[in-house]
UniProtKB/TrEMBL annotation:
Source organism, top-level taxon: Bacteria
One Pfam family hit: Epimerase_2
Keyword Isomerase: yes
Keyword terms: Isomerase
Domain UDP-N-acetylglucosamine 2-epimerase: 28-351
GO-annotated molecular function: UDP-N-acetylglucosamine 2-epimerase activity
Family: Belongs to the UDP-N-acetylglucosamine 2-epimerase family.
Enzyme class: isomerase
EC number(s) from the headed UniProt entry: 5.1.3.14
Name of the protein in its database record: UDP-N-acetylglucosamine 2-epimerase (Non-hydrolyzing)
Length: 354
């Protein structure tokens, strides 16, 4: 079994860590890094600390407009596929690297495995929604984290090749939680007490690229009544500069993006998590920390329906009200994202299907 895996963005490196381990135990993997994320804190740090194999190919595509970035990736992934002639191609999630990898393979009749298939926000203005819908429709194996994703696919007429395997992010989270206990150090250098701060992440284009939404969120952050830690995504750094907005609340510690082990520590020790990230919503659920999501909808609907996550959009008052009032009793919430052995399951399914 020879599989080409295409990754390019931070959450994909984290997801690749457990899957690459499982793939390389069963066959040959060729890892391709598109270069969508390239800062050390957005890329190298994950390869080093999670022991992800050094990519066999680095395409150095970098930051471009959607069409140019996706097009460059498509052209360069195709070259890799023509040279390597793999049995299958594997992609994760919903980024431009995902659709570029999947499309390059589909056009060459190389079967595509999509990890995190069937997720939907039903908001086609999100670039991620377009990427994930298209990728699902050209995949042979659709690895769904939950039954909700299976239902979404069925409504679009996709039933063949659909497997509920759980979520590889839980594999990564469980595997690295113990490592984080010994190696994470970010909290040592910050003047905050455990369980008394809000962990914030903010990067989603629908928030950062809309001046009104960004302003409403920054207003809320500047009025937070308790300390906060904000590892800031480079997209948000540049959008704040462009819009002339800034974080003026002295209790909000704005830091560079952190590695995964530090992030796990920040999540476990937080009183609350305030985010617009897909992955961080799930990790809040895994760590049993209440999550407030600055979006109008979420793909991770189970976290909301079990009462562990609250959607507040980009509304200053709703954000502040949720920070003051939102509480979660995790004692009766089941584990809905599998058993942490998703990587092995999906690799076995690909192997059997070849
Ligand atoms: C991308 C994904 C998004 C995912 C996110 C994870 C798409 C369409 N979006 O969004 O789904 O949630 O990754 O973090 O694929 N930049 C740097 N250094 C880097 C990377 C980015 O400075 O290493 C800056 C550049 O100014 C760039 C901007 O961030 O233009 C946005 O990067 P891009 O990869 O286009 O989108 P993300 O917002 O990171
Ligand atoms: N993450 C990290 N350091 C940070 C911010 C996030 O390691 O400074 C991790 C986070 O724990 C999660 C993943 O990055 O595993 C989420 O990525 P992101 O929020 O960029 O993208 P999304 O999940 O929204 O696509």
């Amino acid at each position: 079994m020879k599989v080409v895996t295409v990754v390019g963005a931070r959450p994909q490196f984290i997801k690749a860590a457990p899957v690459s381990r499982a793939l390389r135990a069963e066959g040959k993997e060729i890892l391709v890094h598109t270069g969508q994320h390239y800062d050390k804190s957005m890329s190298d740090v994950f390869f080093e600390e999670l022991e992800i194999p050094i990519p066999e190919y680095h395409l150095h595509v970098g930051s471009l407009s959607h069409g140019a970035q996706t097009g460059e990736m498509l052209r360069k992934v195709e070259e890799v596929l023509l040279a390597e002639k793999p049995d299958a191609l594997l992609v994760y999630g919903d980024t431009n690297s995902t659709i570029a990898g999947a499309l390059a393979a589909a056009k060459l009749h190389i079967p595509v495995a999509h990890v995190e298939a069937g997720l939907r926000s039903f908001n086609r203005r999100m670039p991620e929604e377009v990427n994930r819908v298209m990728t699902d429709h050209i995949s042979k194996w659709l690895f769904c984290p939950t039954g909700t994703a299976v239902n979404h696919l069925a409504k679009e007429g996709i039933t063949d090749g659909v497997h509920v395997v759980g979520d590889v992010m839980l594999d990564a989270f469980n595997y690295n939680t113990q490592l984080a206990e010994g190696k994470a150090h970010v909290l040592r250098d910050l003047p905050v007490q455990a369980k008394s701060y809000v962990l914030i992440t903010l990067h989603r284009a629908e928030n950062t690229d809309d001046p009104n939404r960004l302003k409403a969120i920054v207003n809320a952050i500047n009025q937070l009544p308790i300390p906060a830690i904000l590892p800031l995504h480079p997209r948000t750094v540049s959008k704040l500069k462009e819009s002339g907005l800034s974080i003026t609340n002295d209790n909000v510690h704005v830091i560079n993006p952190v590695g995964y082990l530090d992030m796990i520590q920040l999540e476990f020790q937080a009183k609350l998590i305030l985010t617009d990230s897909g992955g961080v919503q799930k990790e809040a659920f895994f760590a049993q920390v209440p999550c407030i999501t600055m979006r109008d909808e979420t793909e991770w609907t189970e976290t909301v329906s079990y009462g562990a996550n609250k959607l507040v959009g980009a509304n200053t008052d709703l954000i502040l009200q949720a920070v003051s009032e939102f509480k979660v009793d995790f004692s009766n919430i089941p584990s809905v994202f599998g058993d942490g052995r998703t990587a092995e399951k999906l690799v076995e399914i690909i192997k059997r299907g070849l």
